[in-house]
Amino acid sequence: MKWSAFLVAAVFAALTFGLWAYVNRPTAEPPWPARVQGMAFSPFQAGQDPVVQVLPTEQQIDSDLQLLAGKVTAVRSYSTLKSLGRIPELAARYELKVTLGAWLDRNLATNDQEVAAAIELANRHPNVIRLVIGNEAILRGDLTVTQLAEQLDRVREAVKQPVSTAEPWHVWLKHPELVEHVDYLAVHLLPYWEGIPVNRAIDYLVSNMEQLRRAYPGKPLVIAEVGWPSDGRTREGAVASTSNQAMFLRRFLERARHEGYIYYLMEAFDQPWKTRYEGGVGAYWGIYDVRRQPKFAFVEPIVRIPQWQTLAAVSVAISTLILGMLYVHSLALGTRGRSLLAVVVYGVATTMVWIIYDYSRRYLTITSVLIGTLLILGMLGVIAVLITEALEWAEARWGKTRQRPFDLSALGTPVLPKVSIHVPAYNEPPEMLIETLDALARLDYPDFEVIVVDNNTPDPDVWQPVQRHCQQLGERFKFYHVAPLKGFKAGALNFALERTAADVRVVAVIDSDYKVEPHWLRTLVPAFADEKLAIVQSPQDYRDAEENAFKAMCYAEYRGFFHIGMVVRNERNAIIQHGTMTLVRHSALKSVKGWAEWCITEDAELGLRLFEHGYEAQYLPVTYGRGLMPETFTDYKKQRFRWAYGAVQILRAHADVLLSSDKRLTKGQRYHFIAGWLPWLMDGLNLIFNVFAVTWSAAMIFAPHRFDPPLMMFSVLPLALFAFKLAKLAHLYSSRVGANIRQTLAAALAGLALSHVVSVAVVKGLLTRREPFYRTPKDKQPHALIEGFAAARAETAWLLILVLAAVGLTGQYTIAPGLVVGIPEELKAPDVSLWVAVLLIQAIPHAAALLMSLVSALSLPARWLGAPPMSTGIPATPPFRAQDSAD
Question: Where in the cell is it found (predicted)?
Answer without folding.
Answer: Membrane
